[in-house]
Each structure stands twice: as structure tokens, then as C-alpha cells.
Design goal:
Length: about 400
């Protein structure tokens, strides 16, 4: 068993990788008129930032789930025997995701209620569809009413999707851990199959397959491959077991990933774009796994990912994601609206506002909510009912 897993490291390089992904997500969401003309095709088609976050989420959420089971559950499976593990896992997810998200929805609701502008009118048009955001099924309501949804809310579909995934992955605890990988592989391939059917059917009938493919649950494979990358951690080590093999594997993964992203600029139909997304998803999961492999190295890219600036931004990427479009909306009311300096100004403001929101609200709220939930639920942070400690090592008994 590798020392990096026994040590329970947090893979701080992944925090830096989050910074790169949020930079790209913000670029993808920027108003088109402020993006240089030669970059507009890239902005439209090279949309890999959200899938990158989903791959990291799948990777780390699976680690968190295994940690909860190792501390309080039973690897043989069964939701009854893993009840405490389920509760601890939900406390971790709820305490991090809910406070900033619901605070943001509350702010937007109050602002929309008292404002008399376009945002207020868009909320009225959405009507009952608005309930899908606090109930976490906005990804299913957005496709048919996409043209009426305020830009500020359009980015929040992925939060609904992730919450659904966080609940679905709990079903793994009902199974013996040996079966986790086969189940995840079947689920991920099933997602790809549904994507193929959806794009073929709706491209032919309505021409809106790409819109549906974006918002529905068809992005499951990005998180699914991330989950598998954690469970297959040891099995993937052979890719970097020797220096020469490590350089070849790294080069191949990065080359194929860049190629799958760049080719979307030349895809002329929804089916081609969907298939390139299908190829891109496992490559992003391999990128996450590769970054973890080099996490303890002194390579310049890893040093960059672990730099203080990248770590500071990376820890606040959730709050930055929630707030960056608000920053865009405010700046569009200023003389910077059509200025080439728009992005240069909006990035540092979004980073600063997001970090302040994280330190001033997100992190304290997470700690407070954990404490409030763990007590009534009878959860202990340090005591393991099975005496297994905090080991989060992947199982060694399954075969791929």
C-alpha cells in the first residue's frame, strides 16, 4: 500500500487544480463582448471547467465515503450496518454545500423581489420553476426554460446535479465494497449510453440535444470516472511506476485531453460534441489521479499548484463560483461593460469577494453546522466504533 495513502494526505495540489478550473469556468461565463474575438470560439466550445470540478468531486467524495465507512461502518455493506457512516457523510456534504448556496439564493430572492428590472421580470416568468433551485433539481427544469433563466442562476445547475450524485453514491454503502467498482463502471457506461440516445433523438427532432446534454444527468460519467479513479488508485500506479513510463503516460494523457477539448471547436453537430465530452471525462479523471501521483514531488507545475496564491483561491472556489456572475453583473453596470479590461478587473474582484465570503461565512458556517448536526445525531469526530482509525485506503480485493 502506497505511503501517500497511508499518510491520509489531503492532496493539496488538487486545491491548486481547482484554481485552474475556476479560472476557466469564469472565462466561459464571461460576457462575449469583453472576450477578444480570436478567443470567442475557444470560450464557446472549450467548456471543460465544470467537468473538471465534477471529476475532482467524484475522486474526493469517494474518499470521504470510504473514510466514513472505515471509521463507523462495515465494508461488507448494508445501509443498516452503515447508518452512522451515512449520517457522517451527509453532515460533511451538507455543512459545506448548503450554507453558502442557500445564503446566495436568499440574497438573490430578496434582490429580485424588491428590484423592478429585468431580473425581477425573469423570476416572474420562471414562476414555479424557481422551487427547483432550493430543492436541487434545477438541472431538470432548466433545459425547457433555459432562455428565461437569469444568467446569475444559469450556473447553478451543476450544484443540483452534484447534490443528486452525493445522494446516489450513498447506495454504494448497501453493497460489499468489492462490488463498488463494477457498479460504478456500469452506471458510468449507462450514462454514456443515455447520452448517445438523447443526442441522436433530439438532434433529429428539435436540434436541442446539446442543451439537454448539458443540463440533465448525462454528465454522470465525469464524476463516475472520478470515483473509479480513487477506487482504482493502486491499480493505476503502474502508469507512473518508472520514470520513463511516467513521462510517457503524462504526455499521452495531457495530449489526448487537450485534443479532445480543442476538437470541440470543429464539431458541427450535437452528437460530435457529446462524444468528445465522453472522451474528455475519463481523461480528466486520469489528470486528477496523475496530479495526486506527483503531489509529493518538487516538479515546477506541482510547486505552482501548491503555491500560496493557488491554495488561497482554491479553498474558496465554491464561493467564487457562486459569486462571480454577480460580480460580472455589477461590472456590466459600469463603464467597463465593453472594456477590454473587464476580465482583468473581474478576476481579482471575484477572487477577493469569494475568499472573503469563504473565510467570513462559508468556513464558520461549515464548522457551526457540523457541530450542531453531529451532537443530536450521536456522531463522534474522533472515536471509531470499529477501531479502524481514519484509514482511507482503497480496497485491494477487487479486480478491474
Amino acid at each position: 500500500m502506497s505511503a501517500i495513502l497511508r499518510s491520509g494526505r489531503d492532496f493539496s495540489s488538487l486545491t491548486g487544480l481547482r484554481t485552474l478550473f475556476i479560472i476557466w469556468v469564469m472565462f466561459s461565463h464571461a460576457p462575449t463582448e469583453v472576450v477578444p474575438p480570436f478567443l470567442r470560439s475557444i470560450q464557446t466550445h472549450w467548456t471543460f471547467g465544470v467537468d473538471g470540478f465534477l471529476a475532482i468531486s467524484g475522486f474526493l467524495v469517494t474518499r470521504s465515503l470510504m473514510d466514513c465507512q472505515n471509521r463507523w461502518g462495515d465494508v461488507e455493506g448494508g445501509l443498516g450496518r452503515n447508518r452512522t457512516a451515512v449520517l457522517e457523510y451527509l453532515v460533511r456534504r451538507v455543512s459545506r454545500i448548503w450554507p453558502p448556496y442557500f445564503a446566495m439564493l436568499g440574497f438573490l430572492g430578496i434582490f429580485g423581489y424588491f428590484s423592478q428590472g429585468a431580473f425581477h421580470q425573469q423570476l416572474i416568468v420562471l414562476g414555479n420553476s424557481l422551487i427547483s433551485f432550493p430543492l436541487f433539481f434545477a438541472n431538470y427544469t432548466m433545459a425547457p426554460v433555459h432562455g428565461h433563466i437569469p444568467l446569475i442562476l444559469q450556473a447553478y445547475w451543476s450544484i443540483s446535479y452534484q447534490e443528486q450524485f452525493y445522494l446516489l453514491i450513498l447506495l454504494l454503502l448497501a453493497l460489499n465494497r468489492k462490488r463498488w467498482v463494477p457498479v460504478l463502471i456500469v452506471a458510468t457506461l449507462g450514462s454514456i449510453f443515455v447520452r448517445v440516445l438523447t443526442t441522436l433523438r433530439f438532434e433529429e427532432k428539435t436540434g436541442h440535444a446539446f442543451q439537454l446534454e448539458t443540463f440533465l444527468h448525462l454528465n454522470l460519467d465525469a464524476m463516475g470516472w472520478g470515483c473509479i479513479a480513487w477506487l482504482a488508485y493502486e491499480h493505476l500506479s503502474f502508469l507512473w511506476s518508472r520514470p520513463r513510463r511516467a513521462w510517457i503516460s503524462t504526455g499521452v494523457i495531457l495530449s489526448l485531453l487537450i485534443l479532445s477539448i480543442a476538437l470541440r471547436s470543429f464539431a458541427t453537430d450535437d452528437f460530435s460534441r457529446a462524444m468528445l465530452s465522453t472522451i474528455r471525462a475519463p481523461l480528466l479523471a486520469l489528470l486528477v489521479r496523475m496530479i495526486c501521483e506527483f503531489d509529493s514531488s518538487n516538479l515546477p507545475p506541482i510547486r505552482l499548484l501548491k503555491s500560496r496564491l493557488m491554495q488561497t483561491i482554491g479553498k474558496a472556489t465554491y464561493e467564487i463560483f457562486l459569486l462571480h456572475i454577480v460580480v460580472y453583473a455589477v461590472l456590466q453596470k459600469t463603464p467597463l461593460k465593453y472594456s477590454p479590461w473587464f476580465l482583468s478587473v473581474s478576476y481579482p474582484i471575484s477572487f477577493a469577494v469569494g475568499y472573503l465570503a469563504y473565510r467570513g461565512f462559508g468556513l464558520p458556517a461549515q464548522r457551526w453546522l457540523k457541530m450542531r448536526l453531529r451532537g443530536p445525531l450521536g456522531l463522534s469526530r474522533n472515536v471509531s466504533s470499529k477501531g479502524t482509525g481514519a484509514s482511507v485506503c482503497p480496497p485491494r480485493t477487487f479486480s478491474l
